[in-house]
Amino acid sequence: MTPRPGGPANRMPASGPTRLRTLPLPVLLGAMLLAGLCMLLALNTASAAQELKQRALTDSNASTSDIEQQLVRDLAAKQAPGALASAALAQGLVPNPNPAFLRINANGSVTVLGSPTPASVPPAPATPTATQHPTPTATTSSSTKRSTATPKVTPKATPKATPKATPKVTPTRSTPKPTGGH
């Protein structure tokens, strides 16, 4: 007897879709559940990493915003008139009692308002100083009977402070501003 062409001896092993049909249903459902859990774990991990990055950027942004606000406050404090005046005085600048102002006209010409005069440095206030005058005094020693001079400090009377003369300010007239356009 010869085997028939479609018989069990000539059968090829099952592969592809026929093999999936032979897998039991619980194994297939378990594999799908495991794949779903792995995908969920990967998505959750990626979401947590993005959340941490967002928090770090938010904290960095808040810190930078705080620094910016502090710098704005410092700049405003340094631009205050009192701070500018004390900084100018520290650099040796003096206020000018007769300032002049420049006005740029519409045609490009410049008009000087006021009469400019150079500022003068006020004289430094006189500070009284105590001077020392040594006066010899004699001391005797029982063994040598010689005298040694020791200086004695006596404060000199300080002169009374005289009131400072206030500088005379003469007002100057500035040219009137035109009331029409710029």
At a glance:
With 182 residues, the protein is mainly alpha-helical.
What does it look like?
This protein is mostly helical and 182 residues long. The chain has a domain at 32-85. The protein has helices spanning 17-22, 25-78, 81-90, and strands at 101-104, 110-113. It has a two-stranded antiparallel sheet. A hairpin with a 5-residue loop joins β1 and β2. It is elongated. The N and C termini lie far apart (122 Å).
Q: Supply the helix-strand structural class.
A: mainly alpha
* Number of separate strands: 2
Oligomer: single chain
**Distance between the ends:** 122 Å
Rounded radius of gyration (Å): 50 Å
**General form:** elongated
| Mean pLDDT across every amino acid position | 75
**Order of SSEs, N→C?**
HHHEE
List the helices and strands and how they pair.
Elements: H1 17-22, H2 25-78, H3 81-90, E1 101-104, E2 110-113
Antiparallel strand pairs: 1-2
Key terms for this structure?
3 helices, mainly alpha, 182 residues, single chain, two-stranded antiparallel sheet
